[in-house]
Amino acid sequence: MNFLVKKRPKPVLQIISMIDILIILLIFLVVTTTFKEAQSSVSVSLPKSEALATGEAPVARLGLSVTKEENIFLGDQPVAMDDLVAALQAAKSAQPDVKLELRLDEKVPFGTLIKVWEGLKNAGYKMNEVPARVMKP
C-alpha cells in the first residue's frame, strides 16, 4: 500500500511579464490621450507670414501702435499710458464702426503689453476682436 501522496507543485505567477504588459498599456494610454488645453482670457493672433492672403476685402482699422521705447500712438496721435482708456473710449464713441489693430515693436516689454491689453479691456474692446501684429525693425 502506498500511503504517500505526491505533492503538486504550487502554481507560479510570472509577475515580470505582467509588469511589462502594464507598462506598455500605460504608454499607450498616455500617447493616445487628448489633453485639454488651458483656456486663457487673452487671445492674441500673431501671424508669421509676410503677406496674409484673405478672400475678403481688407477692413479699415485704426492703429494702436506701441514702440520699443514704450510710446503709444492711437492713429497718429501720441497717447500717455494713463490716458489710454479715455482715448480708446473717445475713439470708440466718435467712430463706433471702426475696428482697432494693435501694432507692436518686437522689443516691447511684456509688462507694457499687459498694460495695453488691460486698457483695451477697460475701454470695452474684446481681445479676440483686436488683432495684434508684431512689427519687425
List keywords for this structure.
137 residues; alpha/beta; Nucleotidyltransferase, domain 5; 3 helices
Low-confidence stretches: none
CATH second-level architecture of one domain: 2-Layer Sandwich
C-alpha Rg (nearest Å): 31 Å
From the N-terminal CA to the C-terminal CA, the straight-line distance is 105 Å
The CATH topology annotation of one domain reads as: Nucleotidyltransferase, domain 5
- Beta-strand content bin: 15-25%
**Overall morphology:** rod-shaped
Helix content: 25-40%
The CATH class name of one domain reads: Alpha Beta
Order of helices and strands: HEEEHEHE
Name the structural class. alpha/beta
Q: What does the average pLDDT come to?
A: 81
Largest sheet: 5 strands, mixed
What is the count of β-strands?
Answer: 5
Biggest sheet: strands side by side, in what order? 3-2-1-4-5
Total number of helices: 3
In terms of topology, how is this protein built?
Elements: H1 15-32, E1 61-66, E2 72-74, E3 77-79, H2 84-94, E4 99-105, H3 110-122, E5 132-135
Parallel strand pairs: 1-4, 4-5
Antiparallel strand pairs: 1-2, 2-3
